[in-house]
Amino acid sequence: MAGQHETEPVYQADDFATDGALRDISVLDATIDDWRRMFDGLHAVPGRFVLTWTLSGTTESGSLEAAAVWSRLEQDPEESASLAIDVDGVWFTCYFFDIEEIEFTFDPSDVVDEATFAPVRSFVTWLGTETGREVIVTMEGTDHAAMPALIRWRP
Known about the structure:
alpha+beta; four-stranded antiparallel sheet; 3 helices; globular
């Protein structure tokens, strides 16, 4: 059922059909404070994480600060970064496209049943809890606000 509003995200097989597109997990209308809360919550993420700086090829997995990451990206237009979080074999990756949207992508082919949906549930719940904001899961795209939500989780 598209557009779920349950407190607990629910698995629906059609939402994760392998169709060549990724799925996006987003916090819309984000502020630097939302990013800060997300970064501060990495100590409680239900998995392991790594931040990779593309240009320099360096990685960080300790304490990260949102303002420092965004400042570095703004100061060096050639630099890019990704934050990858592995939750029980499902990778959720943020590419820092826009400070006004916290967006992670994941491959729906990793989600084939209720058991493999558990990492998605854990991640969506973690992101919403840490930011204190609504989290939506949509098909891959750029205008998430206009897209129908496959899952909508509210803290």
